[in-house]
């Protein structure tokens, strides 16, 4: 993990938020390469969930909803973690993560357990009064439930169908840590898949399999993924059954994605609290509340799993090569272009032309510093799958070398064939 944290900082993936002021726990900023990788993850999720499917629609709702949403969803009452505070140093801990009876920091006496609500509060409008109190959403799916009737009215879907959303979520976690694994501000990719009651268990199993396949398709090694069945007593207040896809993080197996059977809990409760009927009428005129299967995944947590899974080192003649063996679709940069020598104007001119040309279709980097070997190493470390080098032969026969990150093998490719070459590789 330390190696990943330092690589992320050094190469511009992740920076501690507000670092010049000493940082702010649980908040992270994403640098030039981090934002590219995050965007790739979101795009690939969206493609697999929305674009490749006929019956799943996208949505983009606000971070702040009417405060009644959180009453209806049960979050005001139940979205809590058990908390204990040290009476001496006043540090706060999650009671369920404590091992002893005393403060792990100073040994002081701890308070009794109380429930701490994880939602961030804010006030809407100029008056800071209870009536204006609102919350930053701790999950994006409530925006989906409260728009259920809108989507049904305009898309006229048949069951089963889904509504998907990607957006920020906020949780005032009592303890953070493990880098970007548990944050107070993060992005979520959530699908609410509505099904006929009675068919929910079948669809739940379907989504568990689909999601597991997707993680492998993204490049995560099969042996680092497993399923975890939540025992009945640890289920969230809305869930009939939840299965997590766990990843083998350096600190142990932990939840990567949760797949819950939320039953008709949310639609029923929003109907009750809002007075608007959110039941569904099928083609036979039968009215009922659909059940909901919900695969839910954090973008940052996925990014961490991908980075950890891709990281490897190769020792050769006392030189260590660090490689991020990322799926090229996830890699921030697809192609790096180099002139063999930076002081030969003909090579630089041709390389610049290729660089400008490829940029129209791919995320491409330029590098003319140091020697070629160093440039290859530098690209390996950030997971760039291919490097193009313009050499003297290029000036004669309009070919370049394309070097592959995984094999380090080079092949000559015609300059006019480069776009097709990379497009095919990325397919
Ligand atoms: N709507 C369902 C829901 O919110 P969850 O298991 O609490 O379920 C879903 O969260 C996913 O969001 C998790 O599997 C994880 O990937 C991500 N996630 C949750 N809390 C997080 C946090 N504090 N920091 C980063 N990611 C988090």
**Mean pLDDT figure:** 96
Largest β sheet strand count, sense and barrel closure:
7 strands, mixed
List the uncertain runs: none
Radius of gyration: 25 Å
Q: Percent of residues in beta strands?
A: 25-35%
End-to-end CA span: 31 Å
Quickly give the structural class.
Answer: alpha+beta
Give the distinct bound molecules: glycyl-adenosine-5'-phosphate
Question: Care to count the β-strands?
Answer: 23
Can you tell me the overall shape? globular
Task: Specify the helix fraction band.
Answer: 25-40%
Strand order of the largest sheet: 3-9-10-16-13-12-11
Number of helical runs? 13
Explain what you see.
The model has no long low-confidence stretch (mean pLDDT 96). Strands 3-9-10-16-13-12-11 form a 7-stranded mixed β-sheet. Strands 20-19-21-22-23 form a 5-stranded mixed β-sheet, sandwiched between helices. It starts with a helix and ends with a helix. It is 31% helix and 29% strand. It is globular and about 75 Å long. The protein contains 13 helices and 23 strands. With 427 residues, it is of the alpha+beta class. β14 and β15 form a beta hairpin. The site of glycyl-adenosine-5'-phosphate has 19 residues, from β10, β13, β16 and α9. Glycyl-adenosine-5'-phosphate binds next to β10, β13, β16 and α9.
List the helices and strands and how they pair.
Blueprint: H1 2-10, E1 14-16, E2 28-30, H2 32-51, E3 56-59, H3 68-72, H4 75-78, E4 80-85, E5 92-94, E6 114-117, E7 121-123, E8 133-135, H5 141-145, H6 148-155, E9 161-170, E10 185-195, H7 200-217, E11 225-229, E12 241-249, E13 252-263, H8 265-274, E14 280-281, E15 287-288, E16 291-298, H9 299-310, E17 311-316, E18 319-324, E19 335-339, H10 345-359, E20 364-366, H11 372-381, E21 386-390, H12 392-397, E22 399-404, E23 410-414, H13 418-426
Parallel strand pairs: 3-9, 19-20, 19-21
Antiparallel strand pairs: 1-2, 4-5, 4-6, 7-8, 9-10, 10-16, 11-12, 12-13, 13-16, 14-15, 17-18, 21-22, 22-23
Helix pairs in contact: 2-9
The protein binds glycyl-adenosine-5'-phosphate.
């Amino acid at each position: 993990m330390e190696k990943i944290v330092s690589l992320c900082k050094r190469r511009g993936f992740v920076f501690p938020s507000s670092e010049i002021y000493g940082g702010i726990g649980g908040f992270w900023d994403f640098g030039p390469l981090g934002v590219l990788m995050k965007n790739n993850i979101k795009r690939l999720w969206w493609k697999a969930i929305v674009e490749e499917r006929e019956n799943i629609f996208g949505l983009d709702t606000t971070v702040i909803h009417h405060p009644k949403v959180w009453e209806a969803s049960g979050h005001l009452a139940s979205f809590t973690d058990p908390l204990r505070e040290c009476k001496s140093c006043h540090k706060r801990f999650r009671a369920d993560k404590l091992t002893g009876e005393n403060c792990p920091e100073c040994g002081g006496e701890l308070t009794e357990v109380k429930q701490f609500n994880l939602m961030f509060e804010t006030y809407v409008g100029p008056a800071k009064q209870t009536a204006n109190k609102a919350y930053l959403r701790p999950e994006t799916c409530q925006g989906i439930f409260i728009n259920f009737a809108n989507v049904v009215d305009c898309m006229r879907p048949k069951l089963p169908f889904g509504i998907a959303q990607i957006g920020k979520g906020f949780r005032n976690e009592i303890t953070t840590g493990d880098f970007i694994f548990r944050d107070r501000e993060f992005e979520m990719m959530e699908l609410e898949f509505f099904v006929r009651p009675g068919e929910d268990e079948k669809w739940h199993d379907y989504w568990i399999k689909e999601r597991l396949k997707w993680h492998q398709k993204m490049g995560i090694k099969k042996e680092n993924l497993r399923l975890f069945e939540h025992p009945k007593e640890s289920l969230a207040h809305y869930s009939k059954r939840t299965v997590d896809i766990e990843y083998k993080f350096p600190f142990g197996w932990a939840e990567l994605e949760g797949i819950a059977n939320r039953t008709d809990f949310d639609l029923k409760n929003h109907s009750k609290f809002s007075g608007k009927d959110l039941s569904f009428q099928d083609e036979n005129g039968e009215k009922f509340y659909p059940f909901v299967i919900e695969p839910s995944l954090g973008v940052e947590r996925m990014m961490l799993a991908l980075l950890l899974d891709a990281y490897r080192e190769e020792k050769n003649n006392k030189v260590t090569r660090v490689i991020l063996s990322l799926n090229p679709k996830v890699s921030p940069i697809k192609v790096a272009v180099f002139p063999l020598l930076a002081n030969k104007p003909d090579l630089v001119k041709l390389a610049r032309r290729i660089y400008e040309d490829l940029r129209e279709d791919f995320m491409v980097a330029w590098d003319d510093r140091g020697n070629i070997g160093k440039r290859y190493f530098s690209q390996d470390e950030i997971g760039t799958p291919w490097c193009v080098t313009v050499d003297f032969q290029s000036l004669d026969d309009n070919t370049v070398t394309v070097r592959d990150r995984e094999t380090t093998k080079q092949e000559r490719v015609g300059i006019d064939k480069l776009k097709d070459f990379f497009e095919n590789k990325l397919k």
